[in-house]
Amino acid sequence: MRLRRRTIITALAAVAVGGTAFGPALASTTPTADPTVPAGREVDPVVLTGASFPQWAAPAEVTAKVPSAAGANCTSGNNTCSHNTYEQPEVATGDKLGSGVDVRKLLGYRWNGKKFVQIPFQVDEVATRYISNNASTFSFYSETDQHPTYVFDQERFRWTKSDPTDPCHAIPDGPATTPDPVPGLDTNDELSFMASDAGPQAPGNADVPKGIVGTSRVEVRDPLLPGKVSYVYVMLAGNDKHAPRPAFDASNGYVRYLPDADSDTFLYSQSAYDSYGNAAKGPYFDPATNTCITDPTQWKQRRPKDTAWIKTPHYQFRYDGRWLMTDVQVAQPGVTNKLGDDPTTWQYGADLVDRWKARAFQQRPGGETPCCGYEEEANNWGGSSVLMGWRAGPVRVIRATWGSDSATNNIRTEYFYRDEFRTDENLRVHPVPPADGIYAQWDFNAGKVSTYYNAYVPDGVPADGRNDEVFGNTHLHSGADGFRLQDGDPVPVVGPQDVGTPGTHTGNCGGGPFEKGCIDNDVDLPDPTFSGPMGTLSYEEVTGKNGTWVDRTTVKQVTGGTAYGLVTEPYYRDDSCFDDGTGSDPGPHVTPRATDPTVDSLGQPRACWLPADGDPSTASPADHYYQGDIATHGVHIELIADSDNAFTTVPLDEIDAEQTVVLLPGERGNVGEQYGRGVEKPLLATVVPQ
Fold first, then answer.
1. Between 17 and 166, where is the model more confident?
2. Which of 14, 187, 307, 428 ranks highest by number of CB atoms within 10 Å?
């Protein structure tokens, strides 16, 4: 194990001076942002709301709904209650407050020095919905929640009906989507474009395109560059036959949504806890036998595959399911993927990520905690969720996933732009005890990234599968057979900790997983020498010859207050020996939801991958290496009191967060200051009607 140069004394000093409030601390982390380093604005989108265009926008719908108790009557898991649906509010103004201009007639322009030319520009309508999934047996807790929802191209939770000609082909049961109750643009709709498409100011006597009947000027400013302003012009086309139409759409803009040809095929879909999510049963396709199971006695819970690619000229992103995000590839330096070309011909480098991973209650299978089992993204959340919907346009693709086991109305929304993607999390979940909490992290492929950076390790550490934290990765056992603490971290001076009380220390809880007070689990504690003081989150970066990834998690809304900041910590693990239960790189996890064997399929001891071993995909046998974690990082929420809105239909104690990931070609040094400081260095956009 390597010792890093930063000392424990320095770390404790950092804890003493660092902020701890969840909201303010995230906006001003320690170390603070450097205002002398300009931000990389070429990757930034600009997103406005209809409220910025009062001359064109009607008021958004006003709604109210009485709290529901329907879920409390649906705990048997027998599928007789309503599945994922929008509930009707008791109060709804609909279009009574007016209607806005036709969103299809709003266009984006820049001045090129001679004339106005169109840029990729997108309007996404938003409506307030009340979501519920009463058939899920944990709906007694979630009931009905208010959620601002996009008007999707497809609301995929409605794909519950079998095609009469093909029982395993999913089709919508009714309309494909639900319109905005307010016709046209309203104040909560969103308008987006890329900051890099802004240009110089047009002269006052510039002619607008023929057929334009209204114009607003958007002034885009960088607060770090006083006096520098660029401009986009939002124009309203009239009804004249010569009026311009959008030059860019979902087929020729910056980002494409490419669902697999069979993404609407029904597959068996059920959580390891079979009543969580609780989809309706019916015919489904069995990949093992390559047949459609139509015998009613063999029907199981089913949902569409929902597999898809997101492609931009600069990267591609893979969905192998609703919670399975398994592939991110970045275009290499010198490669030019042209917008006019077929996106299936665009070229990228090697896959950077093993997958995105979620953990509830434990980091790994096989552990035991006083109350709860082990949940992960593949066999739990993926099986209990539905695809809420997707929306594709020339500036961004939006895709939302609904549900994750007992977090019935948890919504995860991804936004894909040309150079980055963002994930918004509306975390609606019951209390989570302080046994080990919830983890959300990205795990990277061995040998595909070489260095990890954050604001506290600005010189970086190798992404080599060997631990770099001074302390924090701890195996704790406490039960009837005694207490034991094993810490393999390279703690300075005193060395790794391995202490305990007399007893058998069998490595498991003799009374079973619900033994009172029993813990036998790997617990991740924050290391302030590596990731900063408690209650702060900073940028993180991994880089290598296949591309550079810069991410930042921030809080957009914590309606329950700032207390969660003290228990929401950065998570980092670089340990090729650690098997957290899912994934395939460096080696595959072979026993779902259980501890893997210590020998491979040939009976030889499984190995911990090292860079000198080369590409692990060439290993023979394929399961020779442990699954391992490589530069794995994200967030760890150690406990939650409640974030499911306290049985009301409006957000009261919800935790909402956002992660932004910027993807850059080639290997970079530490560029987190340029691309990971969006909270501290935001662009400012001002709309001026003309």
1. 166
2. 428
Q: Which amino acid is at 480?
A: A
Written as one string, the DSSP assignment of 480-512 is TTEEEEEE-S--TTT-SEEEE-SS---SS-TT-
Of 18-27, 208-217, 652-661, the poorest mean pLDDT is in 18-27
- Reduced 3-state DSSP string for 300-327: EEEEECCCEEEECCCEEEEECCCCCEEE
Contact assessment for residue 84 and residue 386, using Cβ atoms and an 8 Å cutoff:
yes
Record the tokens describing residue 486, joined without a space: 């094993």
pLDDT > 90? residue 318: yes
Beta strands of 260-385 (E only): which ranges? 266-268, 281-282, 284-286, 291-293, 300-304, 308-311, 315-319, 325-330, 353-360, 375-376
What dihedral do alpha carbons 452, 454, 456, 460 form, nearest 10°? 30
User: What is the rounded CA–CA span in Å between residue 431 and residue 142?
Assistant: 12
Write a three-state SS string for 100-111.
CCCHHHEEEEEE
When pLDDT is averaged across residues 592-614 and rounded to a whole number, the result is 96
CB-based burial label for 656 (10 Å; 0-12, 13-18, 19+): middle
| Neighbour count for residue 143 (Cβ, 10 Å) | 24
The half-sphere exposure of 45 on its side-chain side, counting CA atoms within 13 A, is 26
Q: Give the residue carrying structure tokens 């919800």.
A: 654
Let me know if 688 is exposed, middle or buried by CB neighbors in 10 A (0-12, 13-18, 19+): exposed
pTM: predicted TM-score of the whole model, two decimal places: 0.93
As a whole number of angstroms, the distance between CA 279 and CA 410 comes to 16
CA distance 647 to 205: 58
Strands lying side by side in the sheet with 519-524? 497-500, 482-487, 473-479, 519-524
d(CA 382, CA 385): 6
Nearest CA-CA partner of 670 in 34, 163, 196, 146: 34
Mean pLDDT of the 267-283 span: 94
Question: Is the four-CA dihedral 27, 29, 34, 40 of positive or negative sign?
Answer: negative
Question: Other CB atoms closer than 10 Å to residue 463's CB: what's the count?
Answer: 25
| Closest CA relative to residue 147, chosen from 428, 350, 362 | 428
